[in-house]
Amino acid sequence: MAKKILIVDDEDFFIQPIKMLLERAGYEIHVANDGMSGLTKARLVKPDLIMLDLMLPGMDGYQICRLLKFDEQFRNIPIVIVSAKDTDRDRELGKTSGADQYLTKPINPQELIMLFKRLLG
């Protein structure tokens, strides 16, 4: 059974190559393009890992991360923030929101695959 990854990002040009890369690596990929649909999809799909952008329409990635991490059902699902924001403050906010990892765009595809393999066991 393939592990399920939910990508929550509003930039299609970023999502598509990552989705193809992860599908080739054997993962089942689900996509949401804004905060609310990201939360809804997380509840429907019950992903094994969530890849989350910070700058999203409606609700930002920090809010989504907090809502999921404080929900008993999602507490143990790894959340990887992937953002263009690269300040220490952003990283600190990611950590206090409950994110398991913080990566900055552009990302290295091989590093991403290795990280996901490690987080998914």
Order of helical and strand elements: EHEHEHEHEH
What is the CATH homologous superfamily assignment? Response regulator
Low-confidence stretches: none
Anisotropy-based shape: globular
**Largest sheet data:** 5 strands, parallel
Strand order of the largest sheet: 2-1-3-4-5
Q: Which fold name fills CATH's third level, the topology?
A: Rossmann fold
* Average pLDDT rating: 95
* C-alpha Rg (nearest Å): 13 Å
Percentage beta strand: 15-25%
Architecture (CATH level 2) name: 3-Layer(aba) Sandwich
Number of helical stretches of at least 4 residues: 5
Class derived from helix and strand content: alpha/beta
CATH level 1 class label? Alpha Beta
Helix content: 40-55%
The total strand number stands at 5
Number of domains: 1
Give the end-to-end Cα distance, rounded to a whole number of Å.
14 Å
Characterise this structure.
With 121 residues, the chain is α/β, with parallel strands linked by helices. It has one domain (4-120): Response regulator (Rossmann fold, 3-Layer(aba) Sandwich). 45% of the residues lie in helices and 19% in strands. It contains five helices and five strands. The protein has helices spanning 12-24, 35-45, 61-69, 88-97, 109-120; strands at residues 4-8, 28-32, 49-52, 79-83, 101-104. A five-stranded parallel β-sheet has the order 2-1-3-4-5, with helices on both faces. β3 (49-52), α3 and β4 form a beta-alpha-beta unit. α2 runs parallel beside α3 (61-69) and α3 (61-69) runs parallel beside α4 (88-97). The longest helix has 13 residues, at 12-24. It starts with a strand and ends with a helix. The mean pLDDT is 95.
